[in-house]
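Run log, item B.
One chain of 148 residues. Sequence copied directly from the ordering sheet:
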Amino acid sequence: MSDVIDAGAPVVSRTEIEIAASPEVVWEVLIGFDRWPNWNPEVKSMSVQEPVVVGSTFRWKAGPGTVTSTIQRLEPHRLIAWSGRTMGIRAVDVFHLDAHDGATLVRQEESWNGLVVRVFRKRLQRTLDRSLENGLRSLKAAAEQQRA
Protein backbone atom coordinates (compact mmCIF):
# COMPACT_ATOMS: atom_id res chain seq x y z
CA MET A 1 0.00 0.00 0.00
CA SER A 2 2.83 2.40 0.78
CA ASP A 3 6.54 2.83 0.61
CA VAL A 4 6.52 4.86 3.85
CA ILE A 5 6.01 2.27 6.60
CA ASP A 6 8.70 -0.24 7.54
CA ALA A 7 7.20 -3.33 5.87
CA GLY A 8 9.94 -5.49 7.45
CA ALA A 9 9.16 -4.36 11.01
CA PRO A 10 8.17 -7.05 13.55
CA VAL A 11 4.71 -5.47 13.94
CA VAL A 12 2.76 -4.17 10.93
CA SER A 13 -0.96 -3.56 10.76
CA ARG A 14 -3.28 -2.44 7.97
CA THR A 15 -7.00 -1.71 8.01
CA GLU A 16 -9.56 0.33 6.14
CA ILE A 17 -13.04 1.78 6.56
CA GLU A 18 -15.56 3.57 4.38
CA ILE A 19 -16.77 6.89 5.78
CA ALA A 20 -19.96 8.58 4.57
CA ALA A 21 -18.27 11.97 4.20
CA SER A 22 -16.10 13.67 1.60
CA PRO A 23 -12.30 13.39 1.72
CA GLU A 24 -12.23 17.10 2.66
CA VAL A 25 -14.37 16.51 5.76
CA VAL A 26 -12.39 13.41 6.79
CA TRP A 27 -9.15 15.34 6.25
CA GLU A 28 -10.26 18.23 8.47
CA VAL A 29 -11.07 15.81 11.31
CA LEU A 30 -7.83 13.88 10.81
CA ILE A 31 -5.48 16.88 10.76
CA GLY A 32 -7.30 18.68 13.58
CA PHE A 33 -4.75 17.14 15.94
CA ASP A 34 -5.67 19.34 18.90
CA ARG A 35 -9.24 17.93 18.73
CA TRP A 36 -8.22 14.24 18.71
CA PRO A 37 -8.95 13.75 22.44
CA ASN A 38 -12.55 14.90 21.73
CA TRP A 39 -13.30 12.10 19.25
CA ASN A 40 -10.69 9.38 19.83
CA PRO A 41 -11.01 7.80 23.30
CA GLU A 42 -7.51 6.30 23.02
CA VAL A 43 -5.89 9.77 22.84
CA LYS A 44 -5.66 11.36 26.29
CA SER A 45 -3.82 14.58 25.38
CA MET A 46 -2.33 16.33 22.36
CA SER A 47 -0.09 19.31 21.65
CA VAL A 48 0.74 20.25 18.09
CA GLN A 49 3.17 22.61 16.38
CA GLU A 50 1.22 24.76 13.91
CA PRO A 51 0.93 24.91 10.97
CA VAL A 52 0.50 21.26 9.97
CA VAL A 53 3.24 20.86 7.33
CA VAL A 54 5.98 18.33 6.60
CA GLY A 55 8.37 18.55 9.53
CA SER A 56 5.71 19.67 12.06
CA THR A 57 5.82 17.82 15.35
CA PHE A 58 3.11 16.83 17.78
CA ARG A 59 3.18 15.17 21.20
CA TRP A 60 0.33 12.99 22.29
CA LYS A 61 -0.53 10.55 25.01
CA ALA A 62 -2.12 7.29 23.99
CA GLY A 63 -1.83 4.25 26.21
CA PRO A 64 0.96 4.27 28.76
CA GLY A 65 3.40 6.47 26.85
CA THR A 66 3.72 9.92 25.33
CA VAL A 67 4.55 9.81 21.64
CA THR A 68 6.54 12.50 19.84
CA SER A 69 5.66 12.39 16.14
CA THR A 70 6.91 14.24 13.06
CA ILE A 71 4.92 14.61 9.85
CA GLN A 72 6.87 12.99 7.00
CA ARG A 73 4.45 13.28 4.05
CA LEU A 74 1.44 15.45 3.44
CA GLU A 75 -0.82 15.44 0.38
CA PRO A 76 -3.93 17.42 1.38
CA HIS A 77 -7.18 15.42 1.28
CA ARG A 78 -5.22 12.33 0.12
CA LEU A 79 -2.36 11.23 2.41
CA ILE A 80 -0.68 12.00 5.69
CA ALA A 81 2.23 10.08 7.19
CA TRP A 82 4.20 10.57 10.36
CA SER A 83 6.87 8.81 12.36
CA GLY A 84 7.12 8.76 16.11
CA ARG A 85 8.90 7.30 19.11
CA THR A 86 7.83 6.19 22.54
CA MET A 87 9.22 3.74 25.11
CA GLY A 88 11.73 2.21 22.67
CA ILE A 89 9.20 1.82 19.85
CA ARG A 90 9.76 3.47 16.47
CA ALA A 91 6.41 3.84 14.70
CA VAL A 92 5.40 4.97 11.22
CA ASP A 93 1.72 5.69 10.58
CA VAL A 94 0.10 6.41 7.20
CA PHE A 95 -3.46 7.40 6.27
CA HIS A 96 -4.66 7.23 2.65
CA LEU A 97 -7.95 8.92 1.73
CA ASP A 98 -9.70 8.05 -1.54
CA ALA A 99 -13.05 9.36 -2.79
CA HIS A 100 -15.26 6.31 -3.26
CA ASP A 101 -18.89 6.43 -4.48
CA GLY A 102 -19.74 9.68 -2.66
CA ALA A 103 -17.87 8.60 0.45
CA THR A 104 -14.23 8.25 1.49
CA LEU A 105 -12.26 5.03 1.74
CA VAL A 106 -9.67 5.51 4.49
CA ARG A 107 -6.80 3.04 4.56
CA GLN A 108 -4.41 3.11 7.49
CA GLU A 109 -1.17 1.25 7.92
CA GLU A 110 1.35 1.38 10.72
CA SER A 111 4.65 -0.31 11.55
CA TRP A 112 6.39 -0.68 14.90
CA ASN A 113 10.06 -1.50 15.29
CA GLY A 114 12.60 -1.65 18.12
CA LEU A 115 13.89 -4.09 20.72
CA VAL A 116 10.76 -4.00 22.87
CA VAL A 117 8.66 -4.76 19.76
CA ARG A 118 10.79 -7.76 18.86
CA VAL A 119 10.56 -9.12 22.42
CA PHE A 120 6.77 -8.60 22.77
CA ARG A 121 5.83 -8.98 19.10
CA LYS A 122 2.64 -11.05 19.47
CA ARG A 123 1.19 -8.93 22.25
CA LEU A 124 2.06 -5.66 20.53
CA GLN A 125 0.63 -6.92 17.22
CA ARG A 126 -2.75 -7.44 18.92
CA THR A 127 -2.47 -4.01 20.55
CA LEU A 128 -1.73 -2.27 17.25
CA ASP A 129 -4.45 -4.15 15.33
CA ARG A 130 -7.05 -3.19 17.95
CA SER A 131 -5.81 0.40 18.09
CA LEU A 132 -6.09 0.92 14.32
CA GLU A 133 -9.57 -0.59 14.14
CA ASN A 134 -10.83 1.46 17.11
CA GLY A 135 -9.21 4.63 15.79
CA LEU A 136 -10.79 4.30 12.34
CA ARG A 137 -14.22 3.63 13.87
CA SER A 138 -13.82 6.79 15.96
CA LEU A 139 -12.67 8.78 12.91
CA LYS A 140 -15.70 7.53 10.98
CA ALA A 141 -18.10 8.62 13.74
CA ALA A 142 -16.49 12.06 14.07
CA ALA A 143 -16.36 12.72 10.31
CA GLU A 144 -19.93 11.56 9.72
CA GLN A 145 -21.14 13.70 12.62
CA GLN A 146 -19.25 16.74 11.29
CA ARG A 147 -20.67 16.16 7.81
CA ALA A 148 -24.20 16.18 9.26
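Observations after the first pass:
- The mean pLDDT is 94.
- The beta strands are 11-19, 43-48, 57-62, 65-75, 79-86, 89-100, 103-113.
Flagged for discussion on Thursday.
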